[in-house]
## 1
Amino acid sequence: MATNRKRTPRSRIVSALNPGEINFLYDRNDPLGDPWLDRHFMSKDEIKGLWTENRDEVLKWWIENKPCSRPGPWWIFDAPLEDTKTRFEVIKTQRRDRISGVGTPCYLCLNYCAQFTLGIPNSWVSQRDADYYNGRAKDIHGKPIGNNKEGDFEGLAIDPTDPPTFESQAAYLKRHGLLTTEEKRHLGKHPELLKPEAVTDEDAE
């Protein structure tokens, strides 16, 4: 059946790269309109080279179709770095500002590296973690597991009634002065893009 869906003209990227590479560059948003679900595993150097070679064309398509946001590779390689405190040190990461909410990223209280997806931590303390490290966890016989006691652990599980919230991608890009002229006009018509984003239990898994 015929449709009126507008399709972006086939670009050099689409014709030159395989589905897995397109999947990575466009966050599963095929310029032709259909999602690529293939997985493609590359070395770190290959990933960086792929992004560097195709960055301009990817961003052109992305900003035209998803203004006031950026694809995953941009967050990995191009996003401004900011000081981020971890359990053991302060490092530079590409993070969005946290606004409010209850929940602790794993890198603040466990032996986890600080890892982010689109500027938001991707590993969070679970209720199981909080129970175990505070001595609340019990085995099937009702006996405590481990030698931990209440107060040993400062990490908090995500509170679904007050989840961690972060500035939106649009707010991040605006704060860093990275919006294009077209995106600024688009944001003026769509102020809802500045609304903070909440982390859910599903996001944290």
## 2
Amino acid sequence: MSNGQIENLYEFHPGQLPLLISFPHSGDWIPEDLRLRMTPAGQASTDTDWFLPQLYRIHELTDVSTIIARPSRYVVDLNRPPDDQSLYPGKVTTGLCPERTFTGQPIYIDESPLAAEEIAQRTRQYWQPYHQQLQRELERLVDIHGKVVLLDAHSIASRVPLLFEGSLPDFNMGTQHGSTCPPSMSDRVGQFCQGLSGYSYVDNGRFIGGYITRHYGRPSSVNSLQLELSQATYMDESEMSWQAETADQVAHEIHRLIEVLLDWSRN
């Protein structure tokens, strides 16, 4: 890292199976010049999807394509559209370059709105490279297999009063109400959810899939699914720490889901 920049904006691993797993919110890197403008909450990148590549045990998925973002979502949110249109009209949400955390805390010391020129520059510098790689890999896998699955991997605090009431279910599946994959894949995901032991779940509840799921999902070729996990399933949320025993149980279910998606994609 030099001059406030990062050498690689994402960690990419190509595989040969008909599955790509995207981790757009797992990074917490912030350029130094930007960090100096941030509050402690902003510098801490508090809304990061903590530990997800570790939870997914990507080192075991040697033949599955994965892409992991390194910049924090506070630099630019890779799961928002480049025109910053709201994904959930009428509901509180955060934008392409967030200015407040999920709990409503200011991210910047100066609370003046970010300039359009700065947002455009961050989009070019950080948003576009991730999506260009994502698009290239999906095209490559479709050329090989004809149809593939895109799994967009996320997690969030179990309680975020600004965004939803009460506690979030453990497994939150989103396919934009079934528009990003065929009914046969939705059915298989539903069967997976019904087989969860000790976990709550919801299909297209508070989260129906963000920009990545909606934009790239083209049933029959790229079939997309967002999984938003409650962080209470694998973390001590008060300490923001990894909990090995509970995480092992969730990892088992995630790998079961991956097998379900791969089995569906082969048929």
## 3
Amino acid sequence: MKNIIKVANLLTWGGLIISSPAQAADLDFNNGTSPWSAFGDVYVAKPKEVLLSTDAILDDDIQLGAISGQFNFSGQPAGEVGFVSPNLAEFLGIDASLLDINGFAYEGSAIKRTIDVKAGDSLIFQRNFLTNENSALVSGSFRGSLNDYSFFLVNDEIKKLADINDATQSLSNFIVAFDKETEIQTFKHTFNQAGTYTIGFGVVDIDDFTVSSALSIQNVTFKSSSTGETIPEPTTILGAFVSMGFGVLSRKNQGMKTNKNQV
């Protein structure tokens, strides 16, 4: 069983710039006091990029010949999704079963913050999903169902950004040599109602905790008016409640670790 450790450190950001309606404000990850908070393996690679992984350091990717923590960015382990407290679901403020998308969510990492928006405001960001689940060295009866994924959080709604089926490109130039990647793609989410929203990004291990996946989030930008640009919408997770009963029973029984698109 893996040790469950919550990393609730403050990440950094650049000050929100007051701008004209046609301009944008960057929600950077600079050094200093920040409204961004993190759980698990979260690393600020540069002011406009944050890296997250499902590598909990202990026994990850050993079948690939990796050393302990090779696919971890921060030196802090990814954490438990549910059951043991603290966990990823508690950090995100959602039921753990909402993360059981196409399988049982074991562990993951995430970053979040709150923002105030008006109707019509939008959030634009870039993501790259990386994984070792596509490696030819990963085999076994469950191969193909280990559908790790990355997500975008808006309050208590999980929107899947990409999973291992989307990671079809050989790795080009990245800080850690994962097997496959989706390459960088741009997403846009428009807020239909004014209010205070919790937004977040994360990556989750599905049906195992031995093979790592990762997420790069870059250039998070808040726009106070529409640019007139149309970017199609990725998958919104509406069927997650179907797996709620399975998720609850599984956690009780285990007691262990246990392009352009519009969002």
